[in-house]
User: Fold this.
Amino acid sequence: MHEEIKAYNASMLPADKAICTKLAREIDKHLTGAESKIWHRHPVWFLNGNPIVGYSRLKDSVRLLFWSGQSFEEEGLQPEGTFKAAEARYTDAKQVDTDLLKRWLEKSAKIQWDYKNIVKRKGVLERLL
Assistant:
């Protein structure tokens, strides 16, 4: 696990730390070859410079965000924002279904929208892969 992400997780209260650590461990395990770092103050994993998945602490939960998640057509992910992102929220590490998370991560590597170049394209997303 990336050292900055370890530090981010360690800064959480115990329940949130357990969720974040579990998410990071599973993401690292199943999204091999991804670059991970703190981006806009939150852990994010990238494939070829394109943001794929990340998580952040919200007021009442930990949010797992897949940038292209609306295209996965998966239960358990809710639309987020005006583009293609989808999220799941957790208040306890026991809520993280590792089999479901693995499936989402597999889809995240195959189904991508080009967020890396969204500014260059003036807010227009194009499908990758």
Observations:
- The chain has a mean pLDDT of 90.
